[in-house]
């Protein structure tokens, strides 16, 4: 991925607003929230001001005017520059065209799940399934409401993507939980046996020193690679 002068995805959202017309930060924030962009881009007011400052520093936007209404604080209206428009188009094109390796919390948890007993992991995955279904229900309801109001999917596409990803994750996690419970996941029996031994007082160090003794043939997976191979 290209190293961006301002890399926070919120900056891309700010540029998208300013392409429409000059705005002050509060108007940008309101516009993004009205369009539900906080569901796909992390948005808070403090970060927004920092992003606006960075965009101005790199000449991607420029201050158009500063106004004051009554006793309210001054508000600076910003406009996008030619450089900002080019940055927006290039950045958006890259996001849409180029897959990026993303390190998700679930993937991190799956990579280390052997640290818990199989039954505990299956229980935790079942809890996750309930939460995934609840979130799907929320997103489905939002989509249904927007469609009833005549909003085309073009303006809802990130929510369509989100709900499909939630369903795919639910399907994967449901199958994984099932495979762990019935030991259909290869290695599950040895995994469970390791935790039984540890609970009985055998250290993991002892088990890993002679895994075949403790785990049978499945324990060979814990043996160090043979340098001759």
Overall strand count: 2
Q: Biggest sheet, open or closed, and with what strands and sense?
A: 2 strands, antiparallel
Number of helices: 10
SS class: mainly alpha
Residue runs with pLDDT of under 50 for 5 or more positions: none
Intertermini distance: 37 Å
What does this structure look like?
The chain is 60% helix and 6% strand. The protein is built from 10 helices and 2 strands. α6 runs antiparallel to α7. The model has no long low-confidence stretch (mean pLDDT 92).
Question: Would you spell out the secondary-structure blueprint of this structure?
Answer:
Blueprint: H1 9-20, H2 25-34, H3 45-57, E1 61-67, E2 75-80, H4 82-97, H5 105-111, H6 118-148, H7 157-181, H8 188-199, H9 204-209, H10 211-215
Antiparallel strand pairs: 1-2
Highlighted features:
229 residues, mainly alpha, 10 helices, 2 strands, elongated
What is the structure about, briefly put?
Helices cover 60% and strands 6% of the residues. With 229 residues, the protein is mainly α.
